[in-house]
Amino acid sequence: MSIMRRLAAATAFLLSVLGGGAAGAQTTSFAAAYNGAGTAGGSCTSSFNISAVEPSASGTYPVFIYLVGTSETYNNAAAMAAVNAMAAKGYVAATVEYASSQFGTCPVLSAKSSCVFNPNSATSAVAQLCSRAKADCSKGIVVGGFSQGSILALLAKNFDARVQAAYGMGMGNVYATYNLSSCVSDGNRSLPGDRLRAVDGERDNFAGGAQAPVQSSLQNVTGLTCPAGSYACLSANGSGWIIAKNSQMADGSADHCYMRAWGDCVGSQYSLDAGWNTGTASWSREANLQWLTRFTTK
After folding, report:
1. Mean pLDDT over all residues of the chain?
2. Which of 42, 85, 162, 212 is most buried as measured by Cβ atoms within 10 A of its Cβ?
3. Euclidean distance between CA atoms 32 and 223, whole angstroms
4. Gap between the Cα atoms of 215 and 203, Å rounded
């Protein structure tokens, strides 16, 4: 890697730790743990970590939960960028570890999501976060995630009615050999389409690797249809879908892992594309996290 690229990577990681440089309240980090399902689903018997940040000021706040993609480290650069940014906006914000090494069917993914979002289990992640003195989950829970994590987030409202909206990256109804239409397509889950924003890259290899199949997948998940060749399809409240273009990426490739600075999904998960991390375009981190804040009270 060149010296300039190393400097860019270091700068991107630093910005992610600082929440992308977004202005906001002072925050405090904390850690917790919960009981989750294994790679094949099943009961919630395995211990997993929670890395979280909350406002330092007194008061109570809504909650934001983020879940990473398959085989990603739960507190990687994208996760912490999202968590720090939401904490600065006035949320008890957390990235939640889970058995991410393998993907799965609807029953497997539903089991993983249930262990995170079951409000009736004292050992669930949502119970651990909502029990914080500064958390008030009656003000709303909003969720986000990437790839497998985006599906777990999408299914969250199946288990906790307090979940108000979801932001998913690399989200689709089909991933390679896994057809998830029965649990993730619009109408087959509790979260309504008007509380979802899905953002994929036009070269997403898990959704067909080109604009047309990516659009088809996003339409199936969100329930919102626009003319063929569209790169955005949003309703009046901002819900819907967005396709990030290759030309908008620093490395020229809007693949499944478009938020990474280079190398597609083989690039470092600790080096972020500047357009996603600090940009203002509709597909960027800030635009989509800001959209989530519409659905909670302060």
Report:
1. 93
2. 85
3. 36
4. 11
Q: Are 230 and 222 in contact (CB under 8 A)?
A: no
pLDDT in tens, 266-286: 999 999 999 999 999 999 999
Q: Are 196 and 231 in contact (CB under 8 A)?
A: no
**In the prediction, which pLDDT does 24 show?**
62
Length of the chain equals: 298
Dihedral-angle region of residue 59 (phi above 0 means left; psi in -120 to 50 means alpha; beta otherwise)? left
Residue 202: phi, psi to the nearest 5? -70, -15
In Å, how far are 90, 112, 138, 172, 203 from 256, measured between CA atoms? Answer: 30, 22, 34, 11, 7
The letter for the amino acid at 175 is: Y
> pLDDT digit string (tens) for 147-171?
999 999 999 999 999 999 999 999 9
CA-wise closest residue to 244 among 292, 277, 196 = 277
3-state helix, strand, coil in the chain (%, to 5): 35, 25, 40
**Three-class secondary structure of residue 51 per DSSP:** strand
